[in-house]
Amino acid sequence: MFGRNQNPRPEIDSLIGIAARIEGDLVFSGGLRIDGEVLGNVIAADGPGHLLIVSEHARIEGAVSCAILVVNGYIAGTVRVSEVLELQPKARIVGDVHYKLLEMQGGAAVTGVLKHQPDSPAQFHLTEAEASAA
Fold first, then answer.
1. Please, which residues bridge with residue 129 across strands?
2. What span, in angstroms and rounded, lies between the C-alpha atoms of 106 and 110?
């Protein structure tokens, strides 16, 4: 919508169902939706655009690292997001969160430190009209 990047998100090509429980680290590429429980780290393969969706029924106990993360469930561990982090109303994160862009809805909670990780220092550019007025 307004000001949002119009690039579509990657498609979900993997699913961990609500009755599933994984013990150990999980490495994925593309799009992954977790409805169940993961006791271990969830890490996207190297490269941009990998999407992880943590549904309201999901629980992750371990570090999470990916490009795009949408959370409406529970994560206990350090979270690192290289592109966009979206926290929906039922999101609960216990641990430090490193992000580039954060979208947080009312009701979401983070118990830990939020650390903005820009690609480079902020740059400001004046238009010709603004530069001549200065």
1. none
2. 12
Where are the extended beta strands (E) located within the chain?
Answer: 14-16, 21-23, 26-28, 31-34, 37-39, 42-44, 51-54, 59-61, 64-71, 74-76, 79-87, 92-94, 97-99, 101-104, 109-111, 114-116
Contact in structure between 107 and 125 (CB atoms under 8 Å): no
d(CA 50, CA 83): 9
Dump pLDDT digits (tens) for 88-123.
Answer: 999 999 999 999 999 999 999 999 999 999 874 444
Task: Kindly give the residue spans of alpha helices, DSSP state H, lying in 1-134.
Answer: 128-133
Decide: 129 and 111 in contact? Cβ < 8 Å.
no
Does pTM top 0.85 for this prediction?
no
**Angstrom distance (rounded) from CA 71 to CA 122:** 27
